[in-house]
Amino acid sequence: MVPRDRDAAPPPQSASAFWFLLLLGPPIAGVLVLWLLGANPLNLAVVAAALLPSYGLGLAPALLAGLVDRWCAGRGLGLTIRLAAVLLAAAAAAMGLVIPLFSQGLVQGWYPLLVGPVAAAATLLVMLLHAASRAFPR
């Protein structure tokens, strides 16, 4: 068995998880938010209207989650630790966007505080989709 170089590029599998998170994370989070607010997330007009804000707020958490996933995969960490780190990174990044607004009174109520759990849930769904897509041979 050849020893792996620590500075080597991460395996290709982590790159595909990165793109899955970056492309699918924000829209799935937007659909989850619509569902939590009582809107019909299957209505195409509503989902289309929510895409821009979803990418605006969700791109940073998805990017950070993808980078953490890539880093964890490159280090050869186990699936449980990798998933926990990615979910924590997504939730922390999403809360990092909302907490300054919440603390200055620019957003009110408890709905903005759902951003962290929604980001973690969307990340979990995307990671499950990625695992399912790799389970089937091409």
Question: What does this molecule look like?
Answer:
- By secondary structure, this protein is mainly alpha-helical.
- It has one domain.
- It has 4 helices and no strands.
- The chain has helices spanning 12-36, 44-74, 79-103, 115-135.
- Helix 1 (12-36) runs antiparallel to helix 2 (44-74) and helix 1 crosses helix 4 (115-135).
- The mean pLDDT is 82.
Brief digest:
The chain has four helices and no strands. With 138 residues, it is mostly helical. It has one domain (13-135).
The total of beta strands comes to 0
Q: What is the overall shape? A: globular
Helices and strands, in order, run as HHHH
Low-confidence stretches: none
Helicity level: over 70%
Mean pLDDT: 82
How would a crystallographer describe the biggest sheet? none
Structural Rg = 16 Å
Question: Could you tell me how far the N terminus lies from the C terminus, measured between alpha carbons in angstroms?
Answer: 28 Å
Query: Helix count, per DSSP?
Result: 4
Structural class by secondary-structure content: mainly alpha
Tally of discrete structural domains? 1
